[in-house]
């Protein structure tokens, strides 16, 4: 009975993800290609800028891979979390199909984001491996695990913010700003945690996304230094945020519906 | 227009990819052998789990950390061992040496020596039920080298210059001994390399001493020959003496000319005997001065200027050759001392210890690697096929 229910919801999520993917392709100016190209353009521009300014700092791994891993993981986190905070818009609701839960819609959206950004990262890794003529991922299992843990954390944080934010409006606004601004500058997109001064590092290490991104880089290159970075911290964030959001979801399912349709960030 | 072109190109590429998938289906096995992708993945994951957590032999890892440091000469400020190492010369030196060491410790020569002492073919032999771990009995030299390299990791840390040496063995003692043997090799490499450089420098310095000695001998001989040829002890001093004589004569000439002028004013007749005496003296002195001058510069005379110049040149050559010999002898002495002295040291930060428990990391790495690979393949393939189905 439970297995049938799980299988049913997996099928629903897959179908919704397929539908969501179609919508994303329709909205993208470059179509299907655009889905993959858009996240890579920013990384490409920043890399070109770096080359143009001749920035020479300590490089613990391939700079393209370092930059791509930071930006792609951050944008995946940001998109999934913001989408979860926004809730299910009216256009996504299936009021006539009672088996489709709002949570299914949000999970499907997260799956599509994971697929898009994961595929981008996959192609970057492939390109760097071909360029360096060796496979650049030392521990593929850990890399995939980190990527998925960040995705789970983002879904958990987004859902929790949505539910808590319904009671306290300010929470929703604060989380939105924190994700878009604060995490952007403190998640290791522009720096390596090992090169951060010791008196700043403890403040940055509160950010779970920084742990996720740095552990992902460490999985690529075992000599990449990660002082203060902890796998346990990421695991706790992922499971606690997801667990709390699921707990709250049971009693507040109607809150997953957005009050007003909002554009994607 | 461009956007449309890009969009159509992308769709065409995905369509071509789909065709490949369709044509691949034609090659599939007979119906009774077909297996769904989900079942195949599940089977792969189960087989991996059985191997990783059941059949796979235990691996043991031993890690040691060390620095390569050179004692600083007295007078230079030595950085504290636990002080800020970033960018310090000793850290950069250790890092550089560590990078060379990483290549050296993975070299076939090291493998040959270490495997010989370790009896690797017996200790790393494959055993049932795990037929993956270990060295095949009939492994050729290339396979042995590849296996050796997979058992030894040398990681110089960019930030601190610390070199981390990790060895893997199928039992704790093998891993420990491999680590210890490699540390010995590292010590030999660090010292031999530096002492070999000093020995080469010593040979070169000794050659230079011979060359400088010959040069000094030649320069001294030339100077002696010059002196013998002209019968002069020191042409420079002789030239200086002549110049002094000319100066003295010129001073006397000036005095006499003044006296002559005074007498000409005193006597109305310039032919007066008192005047004529002084005039004769002036003329005689002028002739003498001219004669001395000619003897110094004219080629027909003593040509003291040329001789002095040549003598200076020869003397300079002797001085230069003497200094050169001194410097060469000093270099020989230094090189001799350096070639006997230990220039660099391996500073052990953590000694290798025999592990008491096996390394579980590889089991999770293998399992998660397969699961992660399956997820990536599923994610990327389903995403691309989802796009293709819309074409």
Give an account of the 3D structure.
The complex is a heterodimer of chains A (265) and B (391). The longest helix of chain A is centred in the middle third of the chain and has 31 residues, at 102-132. Chain A has helices spanning 2-27, 31-52, 63-86, 102-132, 140-167, 169-186, 201-204, 208-220, 231-251. Chain A has one domain (2-256). Chain A contains 9 helices and no strands. The radius of gyration of chain A is 19 Å and the shape is globular. Mean pLDDT of chain A is 82; it is low at 260-265. Chain B has 391 residues and is α+β, with helices and mostly antiparallel strands. Chain B has a domain at 58-77 and 84-199 and 343-383: Bacterial polysaccharide co-polymerase-like. Helices cover 68% and strands 7% of the residues of chain B. In chain B, a hairpin with a 6-residue loop joins strand 2 and strand 3. The radius of gyration of chain B is 45 Å and the shape is elongated. The two termini of chain B are 19 Å apart. Chains A and B meet through helix 1, helix 2, helix 4 and helix 5 of A and helix 1, strand 2 and helix 11 of B.
Widest beta sheet: strand line-up of chain B = 2-3-1-4
Number of strands of chain B: 4
Query: Which architecture of the domain at 58-77 and 84-199 and 343-383 in chain B does the CATH hierarchy give at level 2?
Result: 2-Layer Sandwich
Inertia-based shape of chain B = elongated
Helical proportion of chain B, percent range: 55-70%
Question: From N to C, what is the helix and strand string of chain A?
Answer: HHHHHHHHH
Largest sheet of chain A: none
N-to-C span of chain A: 39 Å
Largest interface: A-B, 33 and 33 residues
Quick take:
The complex is a heterodimer of chains A (265) and B (391). Chain A has helices spanning 2-27, 31-52, 63-86, 102-132, 140-167, 169-186, 201-204, 208-220, 231-251. Chain A is mainly α and 265 residues long.
């Amino acid at each position: 009975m439970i297995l049938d229910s799980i299988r049913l919801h997996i099928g629903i999520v897959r179908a919704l993800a397929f539908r969501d993917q179609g919508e994303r392709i329709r909205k993208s100016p470059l179509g299907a290609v655009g889905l993959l190209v858009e996240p890579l353009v920013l990384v490409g521009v920043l890399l070109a800028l770096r080359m143009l300014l001749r920035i020479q700092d300590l490089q613990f791994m391939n700079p393209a891979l370092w930059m791509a891993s930071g930006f792609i993981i951050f944008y995946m986190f940001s998109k999934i979390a913001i989408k979860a905070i926004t809730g299910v818009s009216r256009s996504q609701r299936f009021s006539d199909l009672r088996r489709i839960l709002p949570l299914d819609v949000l999970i499907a959206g997260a799956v599509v984001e994971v697929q898009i950004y994961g595929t981008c990262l996959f192609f970057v890794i492939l390109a760097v491996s071909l360029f360096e003529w060796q496979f650049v991922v030392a521990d593929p299992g850990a890399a995939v695990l980190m990527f998925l843990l960040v995705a789970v954390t983002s879904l958990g944080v987004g859902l929790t913010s949505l539910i808590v934010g319904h009671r306290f409006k300010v929470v929703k606004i604060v989380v939105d700003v924190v994700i878009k601004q604060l995490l952007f500058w403190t998640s290791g997109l522009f720096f390596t945690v090992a090169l951060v001064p010791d008196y700043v590092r403890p403040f940055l290490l509160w950010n779970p996304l920084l742990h996720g991104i740095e552990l992902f880089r460490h999985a690529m290159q075992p000599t990449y230094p990660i002082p203060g970075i902890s796998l346990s911290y990421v695991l706790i964030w992922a499971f606690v945020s997801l667990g709390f959001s699921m707990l709250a979801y049971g009693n507040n399912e109607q809150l997953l519906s957005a009050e007003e349709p909002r554009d994607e960030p | 227009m461009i956007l449309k072109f890009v969009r159509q190109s992308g769709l065409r590429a995905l369509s071509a990819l789909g065709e490949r998938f369709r044509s691949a289906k034609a090659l599939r096995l007979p119906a009774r052998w077909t297996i769904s992708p989900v079942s195949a993945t599940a089977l792969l994951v189960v087989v991996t789990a059985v191997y990783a957590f059941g059949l796979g032999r235990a691996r043991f890892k031993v890690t040691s950390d060390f620095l390569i440091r050179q004692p600083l000469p007295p007078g230079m400020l030595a950085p504290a061992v636990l002080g800020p190492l970033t960018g310090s010369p000793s850290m950069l030196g250790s890092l550089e040496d560590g990078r060379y060491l990483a290549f050296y410790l993975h070299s076939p020569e090291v493998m040959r020596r270490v495997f010989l002492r370790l009896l690797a073919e017996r200790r790393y032999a494959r055993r049932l039920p795990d037929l993956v771990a270990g060295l095949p009995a009939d492994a050729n030299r290339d396979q042995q080298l590849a296996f050796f390299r997979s058992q030894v990791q040398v990681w110089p840390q960019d930030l601190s210059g610390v070199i981390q040496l990790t060895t893997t063995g199928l039992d704790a003692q093998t891993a420990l001994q491999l680590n210890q043997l490699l540390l010995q090799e590292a010590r030999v490499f660090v010292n031999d390399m530096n002492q070999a450089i000093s020995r080469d420098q010593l040979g070169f310095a000794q050659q230079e001493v011979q060359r400088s000695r010959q040069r000094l001998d030649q320069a001294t001989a030339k100077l002696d020959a010059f002196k013998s040829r002209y019968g002069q002890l020191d042409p420079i001093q002789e030239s200086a003496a002549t110049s002094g004589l000319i100066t003295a004569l010129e001073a006397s000439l000036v005095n006499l000319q003044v006296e002559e002028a005074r007498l000409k004013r005193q006597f109305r007749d310039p032919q007066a005997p008192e005047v004529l005496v002084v005039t004769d003296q002036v003329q005689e002195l002028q002739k003498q001065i001219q004669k001395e001058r000619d003897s110094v510069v004219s080629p027909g005379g003593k040509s003291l200027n040329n001789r002095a110049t040549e003598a200076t040149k020869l003397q300079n050559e002797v001085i230069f050759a003497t200094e050169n010999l001194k410097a060469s002898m000093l270099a020989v002495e230094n090189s001799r001392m350096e070639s006997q002295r230990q220039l660099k040291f391996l500073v052990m930060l953590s000694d290798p210890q025999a592990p008491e428990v096996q390394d579980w990391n590889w089991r999770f790495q293998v399992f998660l690697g397969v699961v992660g690979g399956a997820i990536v393949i599923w994610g990327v393939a389903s995403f691309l096929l989802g796009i293709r189905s819309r074409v």
